[in-house]
Amino acid sequence: MATSTGSLTVEQFAALPRTDTRDELVDGELISMLPADLLHNVTEKRLVRLLDPIAGGGYVNAEVPFVPIPGRHTARTADVAWGSRERLAARGLRGYVQGAPELVIEVVSPSNTMPEMNRRRREAFDGGCLEFRTVAPDAQMVEAGMPDGTSRTYSAGRKIPTGPLGGAQIPVDRIFGD
To answer: How far from each other are the two terminal CA atoms of the chain, in whole angstroms?
Structure first.
């Protein structure tokens, strides 16, 4: 992971040329990450495929760019996210979503740390996220966190309610294998 040495605004960050790395901006510092591995990509695809039929007219996709808190020089990319039609219509589809999508899902990679994931969760909630999920493919577990600080962990054989998407349930087993 590489970082910049200067402070960038979100606008300067958005204007940078695209590279083969996945870049994010954290407090004005450019953070470059290597592309995710195949397990990470497969897990993202499964999540999108499971959420898409219950999206209710909202937008669900992988690699969703957003600025959690406008003015703080931070731009993230959610591994998977869902935003309601109303929220996205108010913010537009060009560039980065201003504020966090209602549902943000991060797929844990070996390079992720707990402090990093906790920071991502805090930023998402500060930006209006209603539910933040951490998906751990190696442990085959999903943690669903809420803005009030509560969380629930789901493992094999359990079903996860989809909260912001109307409450349909997704079997954990379907996230980690068909």
So the answer is: 32
